[in-house]
Design goal:
Blueprint lengths: L10 H7 L2 H9 L4 H8 L7 H31 L8 E4 L5 E2 L5 E2 L6 H4 L3 E4 L18 H8 L24 E4 L5 H7 L14 E6 L2 E6 L5 E4 L15 H15 L5 H10 L2 H10 L7
Antiparallel strand pairs: 1-4, 2-3, 5-6, 6-7, 7-8
Length: 288
């Protein structure tokens, strides 16, 4: 949880990234949920200096997480088992730290949310190097199973073994849950707030440097990430045919993902308390 809210790095970690004044400000700055939501919804502002403090606090938290991970790897090495251990470091999401006027990871599939590290170490079985090709966290499962020598039947699955040839691997992210609790929270202080623009469901598909964003309210677009990594310029107008082609590919990829049998089985397996907890975290929408 080091790199997750609430961000509580030690002062020693903060001092590596901040001036004494910034360290002091990092303790004073109000980043309670109501303030975070009000900023994200454009109802309140944070100045550039405070946003810089937020980013440096996040860096300090990452630094402590990195140190803990180093300790884990060192212990595996001390026990003499590191080279017989598959090590994976990844995350479920990143954070927007003011980009697009958002704090956090809700209501968005921007690159700052979805572009997270995936580090895989398996000596003798995974070659050293870097690969910028997008993957999905779903792909980690079959990759680990096959590395462990187990048979994997991934026919019909969206998940792919990352060590196999890249043939037809889908690269899709989804934000389909309408997280309503923040709307209720900010409405107490901002009764005129209109949450409708934030209720949009979002899907995105990556193909090379291109990223297609679909939104249920029609505000999607096509972005060239090589030229426009902050997704500020929609090129769908000048690449109309390509946008249509990627939209069809996205539709094919997600077809059947919300089959009733899958939904019903998932719902039966979930206790009422688990359902309430997931709703409070923003991962369930009215039982979906």
């Amino acid at each position: 949880m080091e790199a997750h809210r609430p961000l509580l790095p030690s002062d020693a970690a903060r001092e590596r990234f901040m001036t004494p004044e910034q360290v002091r400000r990092s303790h004073e700055l109000d980043l309670s949920w109501p303030r975070v939501w009000a900023y994200t919804f454009g109802l309140e502002e944070l100045d550039d200096a405070d946003l810089e403090v937020v980013r440096r606090t996040y860096d300090a938290a990452l630094y402590e997480l990195d140190a803990l991970f180093e300790g884990l790897v060192d212990e595996l090495r001390r026990r003499g088992v590191l080279d017989d251990t598959i090590v994976v470091l990844t995350s479920d999401h990143g954070e927007l730290l003011g980009d697009g006027h958002v704090l956090g990871h809700h209501y968005s599939l921007a690159e700052g949310v979805v572009r997270v590290p995936l580090v895989l170490r398996a000596p003798g079985r995974v070659a050293a190097g870097r690969d910028a090709t997008p993957v999905q966290n779903l792909d980690v499962g079959p990759t680990l199973l096959r590395l462990a020598g187990l048979r994997v039947d991934d026919a019909g699955s969206r998940a792919r073994d990352l060590l196999l040839a890249d043939t037809g691997r889908a690269r899709v992210a989804e934000y389909l849950v309408r997280f309503e609790e923040p709307f209720r929270s900010v409405s107490r202080d901002h009764p005129d707030f209109d949450p409708e623009p934030f209720r949009s469901r979002i899907r995105a598909l990556w193909s090379g440097d291109e990223k297609l964003v679909w939104r249920s309210d029609g505000r999607g677009g096509l972005y060239d990430l090589a030229r426009d990594p902050r997704e500020e310029h929609d090129v769908a107008g000048e690449r109309g045919e390509r946008a249509k082609e990627l939209a069809r590919e996205l539709q094919r990829t997600v077809a059947g993902l919300d089959a009733p049998s899958v939904r019903d089985a998932d719902r039966r397996a979930r206790s009422e308390e688990e359902r309430r907890r997931l709703e409070r975290l923003g991962y369930l929408d009215g039982g979906r």
